[in-house]
Amino acid sequence: MMEGMTTAPGQVPLGYAGTRHPLDPDPARATKARAVFALGLIAALTGLFVGGVVPATIALQLSRQARREAYASGGFLTGAAWLRRGERLAWIGLVLCAVAVVTAVVIGVVRMADAPFGHDYAPNMD
C-alpha cells in the first residue's frame, strides 16, 4: 500500500531499500587495483634508471585484466581511481625510461663524433 507513495507530487518515491537482491555480493575494491598502483609507483620512481620498464609493463597488463574483471562483475568491484593513477604512473615511468635511453644515445653519438677516426699516428709517420 505504501510502496508507491511520495512526499509530494513529482518527487522521488521514499523507499528504495529493497532494490538490492540479497544474494548480490558487497562491493569490494579490486586487489589488482592496489597492485597496479604499487607497480606504477615503482615504475615512476625507477623510470630514469631504465628499471621502470618491467613494473610499468606488468602494471599496464594488470590494469587491462582488472578493467575486464570490473566490467564483468557488474559494478561490484571498485577501485577505478587507483587503476587510473597506477596507469598514469606506469606511463610516466615508460616515458622517463625513453627519455633516459634517448639521452644516453645522444651523449654516445656526440662522444663518438668527437673521437678521432682511425689510428692516431705520430706526425713523423707516413
Structural class of the secondary structure composition? Answer: mainly alpha
**Uncertain parts:** none
Work out the helicity level: 55-70%
Instruction: Characterize the biggest β-sheet.
Output: 2 strands, parallel
Span of the ends, CA to CA: 113 Å
Mean of pLDDT:
84
Order of helices and strands: EHHEH
Radius of gyration, in angstroms, nearest whole number: 29 Å
Give the CA-based shape: rod-shaped
How large is the count of helical segments?
3
**Percentage of residues in DSSP E strands:** under 5%
Number of strands: 2
Strands in their spatial order, largest beta sheet? 1-2
Structural features:
about 130 residues; mainly alpha; two-stranded parallel sheet; 3 helices; rod-shaped
Describe the fold and architecture:
The protein is mainly alpha-helical and 126 residues long. The chain has a domain of 88 residues. 56% of the residues lie in helices and 3% in strands. It is built from three helices and two strands; from the N terminus they run E-H-H-E-H. Strands 1-2 form a two-stranded parallel ribbon. Helix 1 runs parallel beside helix 3 and helix 2 packs antiparallel against helix 3. The relative contact order is 0.15. The mean pLDDT is 84. Keywords: Membrane, Transmembrane, Transmembrane helix. This is DUF4190 domain-containing protein.
